[in-house]
Amino acid sequence: MKNKETETKFKSSRGAAHHLIGSTICLAALTLICSSAPAQNLFMSDGYSGISENLGHIYKFTPTGASSAFASGLDGPLAMAFDSAGNLSMAAEGNIYKFTPDGARTTFASGVSLSYLSGLAFDSAGNLFVVAEGNIYKFTPGGVRSTFASGLNRPFSLAFDSSGNLFGDGPRQRPHL
CATH number of the domain that 126 lies in? Predict the structure, then answer.
């Protein structure tokens, strides 16, 4: 029989481990985004334009630290991923936009079932995997969408490893103390 102290330590350790694993996956996804970005630039979004007129941008940071606005006027830029050609795909409130390396924007996909977008990742074949409302969708390079997985418990981010395995993390939780 466990006593209260043992039970509390177990819950705390389990929560801390879950948090550490989730943070590691997010860091791995960010590393993949940075490592596949053209010229090793870092791209960062600043949030929802609906909250403030000063938000809704994607910024580009060069290896020397110079920053510039890569795109602006976006409604909730969230997840980003680069394809092998250096194009940036970005999820924003029901849409997936594609930016060429020089910043030209097109709408890659939009639709009712694409709300609450939170994760993007490209596989080696150029297919785009997208997290939206408990589902993972797969888009071919031509834009054909299929459901890859459904009924998931709030998946958040995605990343592929070098062997082509898809990884994702779930809802954010604070460690239980």
Answer: 2.120.10.30
**Does the structure show a pLDDT above 60 at 102?**
yes
86 is in which domain, residue-wise? 4-44+75-169
Residues 6+ away with beta carbon under 8 Å from 108: 89, 96, 97, 98, 128, 139, 143
* Total-model pTM: 0.68
Exposed, middle or buried by CB within 10 Å (0-12, 13-18, 19+), for 153? exposed
In this prediction, residues 4-16 reach a mean pLDDT of 44
| Calpha distance 166→79 (Å, rounded) | 16
Give the pLDDT of residue 4. Answer: 47
Q: Is residue 84 part of a domain?
A: yes
Give a yes or no: residue 162 inside a domain: yes
Query: What DSSP string runs through 118-134?
Result: EEEEE-TTS-EEEEETT
Structural domain count of the chain: 1
Flag whether 70 is in a domain: no
Q: What is the pLDDT of residue 17?
A: 44
Q: Which strand (E) or helix (H) includes residue 78?
A: strand 77-82
